[in-house]
Design a protein that fits this description.
Elements lengths: L1 H5 L1 H17 L5 H25 L15 H21 L6 H14 L5 E7 L5 H10 L9 E5 L12 H8 L4 E6 L5 H12 L3 E6 L7 H14 L4 E3 L7 E6 L5 E6 L6 H13 L1 H49 L7 H6 L2 H10 L6 H18 L1 H14 L2 H5 L3 H23 L13 H14 L3 H15 L5 E4 L2 E4 L2
Parallel strand pairs: 1-2, 1-3, 3-4, 4-5
Antiparallel strand pairs: 6-7, 8-9
């Protein structure tokens, strides 16, 4: 059953073949047709239904990538270098610095690489290894630029050690991808091709094992693939199934033997030749650009981690300053944010860490913008109610004047600080953003960070920590149902 679901065309073909066999029995018995007519109809209908359920719901754009020129690749390398240099400036002894620099040097050499890197990927048992062996052993390689063929781990295998994400990361380092299937395109295969398309990866879809289908089925399936995936779609028979040959002698005897057909990869080699002839060096530059972007992302993650470690104590400092201010001067809940929780000086300090050079006036604008967003999103009211709920479990702490406002102010300041950190992490290195905030991005970041810090266990611990800081150290409290003396 699993095989049938993965090969919907084959299921439909079997249903159609069965119905034709039934029709051929017309002359035998009208009764038999009556009995089996419904059955054949169900077989055809079932096959078509399975086909429609498993085939992709939409078509892909052409698989051809958009190659870049050398200048674009060099620009990507320069951006990666800028991040690595910034990392060296802020953490000269970082453990990853030497490795990042070595990879950067390698990228510059990649620009002039002549060898074409080809990744051969696809699901399990589609013929990846056999295709590589055939291509490496054929005379075709001797007439072409050097191709380095690398097989990936099988896709779509949940039990394997290497995930699909790891396979795609490996594939991203290649210039051309041979994506192999051995039947109609399934939904998972369609999604994989979409990812390759989105990554601007030059891909050739290889319909292998075509010899295992009847001639009409084979032609229909190939046409269907070419219609839904315009561009680089070819058919191959890497390891053809032996064919039984029968010879009738004049004396009436019959001889039978198996003949092994020759492999058929002519469409594939022609397509590879065309891709290399038309795009060649540009594919190498495109791959170099992808590698540079990946290197930049790794370096920036290292840099952001260092900056986050420096930003955390600043956020904690200002959250308790905001808490003390609100606790000493209680105000209505909706005014907390404007008076204490969003502090312009915190914005300046965090901006300095992330190379976002902001004046105090600009920081006040940023603080006001965040306060307005928090009020519009209802975060102030939600957080105040959440803090109140936690404090209500302890009557003594709840009645303390200004405690709800103080803890709420600390909590909102923390959310604002963490949101700024995440927002700044998305910016380019040394970008002077000033007032040019992307409000949509900031709004989404605020909502995300707020949700991440809404867990009851976190709130309980945060409220208890706030109570200990805000109430006099000699005051007798009841926390978590256990009487204790602070101090």
């Amino acid at each position: 059953m699993v095989v049938k679901l993965e090969r919907p065309i084959l299921v439909g073909g079997l249903g159609l073949s069965f119905s034709l066999w039934i029709l051929q029995s017309w002359d035998d018995s009208i009764v038999q047709l009556g009995e089996f007519g419904l059955l054949s109809t169900l077989a055809v209908g079932g096959g078509l239904w399975l086909w429609q359920q498993n085939r992709p719901k939409a078509s892909l754009e052409p698989l051809d990538c958009t190659p870049v020129d050398r200048a674009t690749a060099e620009n990507a390398i320069a951006k990666a270098e800028a991040v690595i240099n910034q990392l060296a400036q802020e953490a000269e002894n970082h453990t990853s610095l030497n490795t990042l620099r070595e990879q950067l040097t390698y990228l510059s050499l990649e620009l002039d690489r002549q060898e074409i890197q080809v990744a051969v990927t696809g699901g399990k048992a589609v013929g990846k290894s056999s295709l590589i062996q055939l291509l490496n052993s054929s005379a075709w390689q001797e007439k072409q630029p050097k191709f380095n063929l690398q097989e990936t781990a099988p896709l779509f295998q949940e039990t394997t050690d290497k995930s699909d994400a790891a396979v795609f990361a490996e594939v991203a380092k290649s210039d051309v991808v041979l994506f192999i299937i051995n039947g109609d395109l399934t939904e998972t295969e369609h999604q994989a091709l979409q990812k390759l398309k989105a990554a601007n990866q030059s891909t050739i879809l290889v319909f292998n094992k075509q010899d295992q289908y009847l001639a009409d089925e084979r032609a229909s399936l190939l046409l269907s693939l070419q219609q839904r995936i315009p561009g680089n779609v070819v058919a191959t028979a890497v390891s053809p199934v032996p064919i039984k040959v029968r010879k009738h002698e004049t004396d009436g005897s019959v001889q039978e033997w198996l003949e092994q057909p020759a492999p058929d990869i002519s469409q594939l080699t022609q397509q590879l030749n065309a891709v290399v002839a038309q795009q060649g060096q540009k594919l190498v530059w495109t791959t170099t650009m992808r590698k540079a972007m990946a290197l930049k992302a790794v370096a920036k993650n290292c840099l952001n981690q260092i900056r986050c470690d420096r930003a955390t104590p600043i956020i904690e400092q200002y959250q308790w300053i905001a808490a003390a201010t609100a606790f000493a001067n209680p105000v209505p809940a909706l005014d907390i944010l404007a008076t204490a929780a969003i502090n312009a000086q915190m914005v300046v300090d965090l901006g300095n860490i992330y190379q976002q050079k902001l004046s105090l006036e600009q920081a006040q604008t940023v603080a006001g913008t965040m306060g307005s967003l928090m009020l519009k999103l209802g975060l102030v009211e939600i957080s105040t109610k959440a803090v109140s709920t936690v404090l209500k479990s302890n009557a003594i702490t709840f009645v303390a004047g200004g405690l709800v406002q103080g803890v709420s102010a600390a909590y909102l300041t923390r959310v604002a600080g963490l949101s700024l950190v995440e927002y700044f992490e998305q910016q380019e290195i040394a970008l002077n953003s000033g007032n040019a905030l992307n409000l949509d991005t900031l709004r989404q970041t605020l909502q995300k960070v707020f949700q991440q810090n809404q867990q009851m266990a976190f709130l309980q611990g945060f409220v208890n920590q706030g109570v200990k800081r805000l109430l006099p150290q000699t005051q007798k409290l009841v926390l978590n149902g256990v009487e204790q003396v602070i101090g």
